[in-house]
Specification:
Elements lengths: L9 E6 L7 H14 L3 E8 H7 L10 E6 L14 H10 L2 H14 L5 E5 L5 H8 L3 E5 L3 H8 L1 H7 L30 H4 L6 H12 L5 E4 L7 H10 L3 E3 L18 H8 L4 E5 L8 H14 L2 E5 L4 H4 L4 H4 L4 E4 L4 H5 L4 E6 L3 H9 L4 E3 L6 H12 L2 E3 L7 H12 L2 H20 L5 H13 L1
Parallel strand pairs: 1-2, 1-4, 2-3, 4-5, 5-6, 6-7, 8-9, 8-11, 9-10, 11-12, 12-13
Helix pairs in contact: 6-9, 12-18, 18-19
């Protein structure tokens, strides 16, 4: 029997990419859309593991947003090899059929065909699904505006760097053929754009995404218009409705503060205004020699720090480090990052430069120290240092004792650190203005509601 949905007149399918920090911003957007569109029902499709994690905090009782679990493509006898891309590639091999099966169940449940499809922008096949169902496709890009240009311009970049001709990749070049990227070194282009093998699962997905995004009724981005006007103009001329609807973290569902290891109390008691918060995200752990080098830089420099550390710090950090630095530092296994970055004691954020972390730093008015690893992180790091001037990348892109010390001193001690603080304060104001009642994000969100419903 179909469910009773007397007050719902629209049924929207939402397809999430269930890895890293992709599904949570999409769900945040869906909750916001649902609140503004009480007659719309949203069926949210992701893996069981992803759904159980992101729906834990908040789920409407009126059935307006309902999770559906899809198959993850991983066989029951699979043993994790340590390669984080392996489960992603298995999942991609199962798409889009895993979504299609679950979508049929959702239509049967509520007795309503879909009127719109919203996907993570990665899912280029949203264009085909929407065409077959004769409904609009809306794509959410969860990274920054400059990275989406890299994927839209993949063929141009590959031609200019000599990749399509089969020669050696010319990484000594800059992207002086794309407006706003004139000084970007090719080394900071996302590796999936300049890989020699565009047929591998992840590069192939991103390449197809770049080819299909112009077919979307709207491409939304977790950003705000005023952050970067040159790529904005480029994207608005390329895509039908390019809508900056962020930072989403400024318009989330209500969250209960969760701080099991007492990070915020520790910060309150430090009475310091020059503490560095350290976190390299939920996927990568820096190699052992870099962890050792950073620990030595923190200890010898006498820097105050709070470090969200993945793994056992007793095994991975120098012997006795935790005891010797207990007056200046705190190492925890999990930290309420958003609240920490908004604490008055934090003056620097050492990060992998993932887009969510960049936005959280801007919302907290905290300059960044960047150690990028993969994907869009090198590009974000270059933008932070060379375009916005709100942080630095560690010298050479790798952590050594010397490069970490120089970066920490630049942001926390030297005069240039104050200039970075002033510039991030300016971006912070622009972000809050964008989400105000008269702001650009608010206007873009109204446009999105009209397209979706």
């Amino acid at each position: 029997m179909p469910e009773t949905n007397d007050h719902f007149t629209k049924h929207i399918a939402v397809l999430a990419f269930p890895f890293a920090t992709h599904a949570a911003p999409l769900l945040s957007l869906v909750f916001k859309l649902s609140k503004a569109s009480p007659h719309a029902r949203f069926s949210f499709f992701s893996t069981a593991q992803s759904n159980s994690a992101i729906f834990k905090e908040y789920q409407p009782s009126d059935g307006s947003v309902k999770p559906y679990n899809i198959e993850d493509g991983i066989s029951p006898d699979y043993v994790f090899s340590g390669n984080p891309l392996e489960p992603v590639e298995m999942f991609l091999k199962a798409t889009p059929w895993n979504f299609e099966r679950a979508m049929k169940s959702a239509v049967k449940d509520c007795g309503m065909r879909f009127s719109c499809i919203i996907t993570d922008a990665f899912f280029w096949f949203g264009a085909d699904m929407a065409r077959d169902l004769q409904i609009p496709w809306v794509a959410l890009w969860t990274a920054g505006p400059r990275s989406v240009i890299m994927h839209l311009e993949t063929e141009v970049i590959r031609d200019k760097l000599g990749i399509n001709a089969g020669g050696t990749i010319q990484l000594d070049k800059t992207l002086n053929f794309i407006p706003g990227f004139e000084s970007l070194p090719a080394t900071h282009v996302p590796e999936d754009v300049i890989t020699k093998d565009l047929t591998a699962p992840f590069p192939a997905m991103l390449h197809k995404m770049g080819l299909n995004l112009p077919k979307a009724a709207a491409v939304c981005i977790n950003s705000f218009e005023e952050i970067d006007t040159i790529p904005l103009n480029n994207l608005k001329s390329t895509l039908e409705n390019f809508l900056n609807i962020g930072p989403l973290l400024l318009t989330p569902p209500p969250q209960i503060p969760h701080d099991p290891q007492g990070c915020l109390d520790w910060l309150d008691n430090k009475k310091q205004d020059s503490i560095v918060y350290i976190s390299f995200g939920s996927v990568i752990v820096p190699p052992p020699h870099e962890l050792t080098a950073l620990a030595e830089a923190l200890e010898d420099g006498g820097f105050h720090f709070i470090w969200s550390f993945r793994g056992n710090p007793n095994e991975k950090l120098p012997k006795g480090f935790l005891d010797r630095t207990k007056e200046n530092g705190k190492v925890v296994s999990w930290a309420p990052q958003q609240q920490i970055l908004q604490h008055s004691s934090i003056r620097a954020f050492m990060t992998h430069s993932g887009w969510n972390s960049v936005l959280e730093s801007i919302v907290g008015s905290v300059p960044l120290i960047c150690r990028p690893f993969f994907g869009d992180q090198q590009l974000n790091s270059w933008t932070i240092e060379s375009v916005w001037g709100i942080g630095v990348e560690v010298e050479g892109g790798k952590i050594t004792k010397d490069s970490a010390t120089k970066a920490l001193e630049a942001v926390l001690v030297n005069e240039e650190g104050q200039k970075m603080k002033d510039k991030v304060d300016h971006l912070n104001k622009l972000a809050f203005d964008a989400v105000s009642s008269e702001g650009s994000t608010t206007a873009n969100f109204e446009t999105l509601i009209n397209i979706v419903t």
